[in-house]
Amino acid sequence: MLEVKDLHVCVEEDPSEKILKGVNLTINKGEIHAIMGPNGSGKSTLSKVVAGHEAYEVTQGDILFEGESILELDPEERAHLGVFLAFQYPVEVPGVTNKTLLRQAYNTIAQEQGREELDPLQFEDYAKEKLELIDMKPEFLERSINAGFSGGEKKRNEIFQMAVLNPKLSFLDETDSGLDIDALKTVANGINQIADEDKAICMVTHYQRILDYITPDHVHVMIDGKIAKSGDKELAVKLEEQGYDWLIDTAAASV
User: Fold this and answer.
1) DSSP letters along 166-182, please?
2) Where in the numbering of this chain does the ABC transporter domain appear (predicted)?
């Protein structure tokens, strides 16, 4: 579904500031991946670049989605294809309700993909089913996007949006940060219910704790803009026990 090939990325305003330095990553349908690593290693940058964030410039490499390069596509065009990004810091949009935004987004994507659009009553019934996945009340549909939401509510709202829009590929940028244990379990349960054999999910996280509730097929560790090591869930457990220093030392020695 996704193939990242020798991806080099810098900040558009400062081409000398290289953030990604040759990332290679393949994600297949039905897989759950976790990307871990210390602060500043490039994890969040990778998720934003896949989604098409305009603050970054790809200087080398390619991103293939379902076999086709998406480098020249705008963020909304990538979304229409089925790429979704859950934000690390969800923004507030006062005056625009969840229901209004999500129905418009759902129908726009449905139109692009040749699926049936939903009228207001159909969409409300559909959205209420998805609310149950992350234990949110129907009143959330009428609230302005993230306005006045707690940190946990904002993160659950991101997973709700993911459930409604039903993307093929989802990048979740530190969705677990700032969550207490109950909210973490709720979010993880929602992700597990959304995951299926036709979708792919990539979780960006600092910590192993969300992986107590979601079992990844692959775990990758980013160090200094590259994937330094890949493995299964046991790699995440080792990182929790030993930290990242042993991998940082190994990466430095190989330069």
Assistant:
1) --SEEEEESTTTT--HH
2) 2-249
- Cβ atoms of 37 and 235 closer than 8 Å: no
- CATH class of the domain at 2-254: alpha beta
The alpha helices in 11-138, defined as continuous H runs, are: 43-51, 75-81, 98-113, 120-131
**For tokens 């969550």, what's the residue?**
179
Q: How many CB atoms lie within 10 A of CB 253?
A: 7
Q: What's residue 112's pLDDT?
A: 86
Residues with Cβ within 8 Å of 189's Cβ and at least 6 positions away in sequence, in order, are 133, 134, 213
222: left (phi over 0), alpha (psi -120 to 50) or beta: beta
Q: What is the mean pLDDT of residues 76-102?
A: 92
DSSP 150: -
HSE, CB side, 13 Å, CA atoms: give it for residue 74. 2
CB 131 within 8 A of CB 98: no
pTM score above 0.85 = yes
